[in-house]
């Protein structure tokens, strides 16, 4: 095989595929990137068994300026290939592979040769025969992922909680993640012909990588779901992920429907106050910040016996209900507040040791963050 391509455009495609390649993998060939050159374009594939990414550089892509001289396929060591391409001196590069799968990479005065392997040994991508297709706006999907992925568990003791639960039903999407200490839930009314019903759990790590691939000016993303795989199609790129097996816990009963105390704050201002308090809480053994709501005032405090203490009177929009003193992990609170952006947020409390919720003040229940307090006695 032999082709030349504009290097900057090639690197953009290469970066997407690289997301699916892990340094440690059970199959050594998966540490490589597969290149398949046909008369219509160049297909690049990366996989780590959990996710697979395939992207196509079409000969019609003017920015890539792909020039095909001889078709063929090869698997090249991903890490070395990626580093070489990024450091080449000229705007264009040429790659030529001989019958022994040795790849010669030339650009300007630079000339590299790296050893590839036979692509026949590379695993085939999953086949998803799904007649039902869902479509979501790229920026909306990215927002849903970023708002929920923060609450997914990073511990493998309960694998099911390392995923995001996606329930498509009657034209609505419900996305939920929880690690049993906090929870994030987002509801979304689907438009168009998105009427298929699915109940799946996608690994949070996969969704996180997908979100990074979605650009600011993204187009609609097509979603296809099979028994144990999900496929997201972003223009010329296909993103496959395995699905987690099992039943996600019923989280609807965890969200309190009533409140005895409510506090409305500006999310960025409250976030900065939490960041100041956590400077000391991180030095303590428990990493706890206390919020005191009493006598019409809201006070944030933290104490580290080794360092000192901090106390700050908060500004707020509105405070209603019973006096309350509640302690929580500030890192959970910071993640939750960041997910709200610049909006006003309503915090709703019941008891000092019962979970409390955060919702946008102008929302109608479509987005909820829940945090479980910390017992300090």
Automatic annotation (TrEMBL):
Keywords: Cytoplasm, DNA replication, DNA-binding, DNA-directed DNA polymerase, Nucleotidyltransferase, Transferase. One of its GO terms (molecular function) is DNA-directed DNA polymerase activity. Gene3D superfamilies: 3.70.10.10, DNA Polymerase III, subunit A, domain 2. The keyword Translocase does not apply. InterPro entries: DNA_clamp_sf (IPR046938), DNA_polIII_beta (IPR001001), DNA_polIII_beta_C (IPR022635), DNA_polIII_beta_cen (IPR022637), DNA_polIII_beta_N (IPR022634). Residues 1-126 form the DNA polymerase III beta sliding clamp N-terminal domain. Residues 253-375 form the DNA polymerase III beta sliding clamp C-terminal domain. Residues 136-250 form the DNA polymerase III beta sliding clamp central domain. Pfam families: DNA_pol3_beta, DNA_pol3_beta_2, DNA_pol3_beta_3. It comes from the Bacteria. It is found in: Cytoplasm. Belongs to the beta sliding clamp family. Confers DNA tethering and processivity to DNA polymerases and other proteins. Acts as a clamp, forming a ring around DNA (a reaction catalyzed by the clamp-loading complex) which diffuses in an ATP-independent manner freely and bidirectionally along dsDNA. Initially characterized for its ability to contact the catalytic subunit of DNA polymerase III (Pol III), a complex, multichain enzyme responsible for most of the replicative synthesis in bacteria; Pol III exhibits 3'-5' exonuclease proofreading activity. Forms a ring-shaped head-to-tail homodimer around DNA. This is Beta sliding clamp. The lineage of its organism: Bacteria, Bacillati, Bacillota, Bacilli, Lactobacillales.
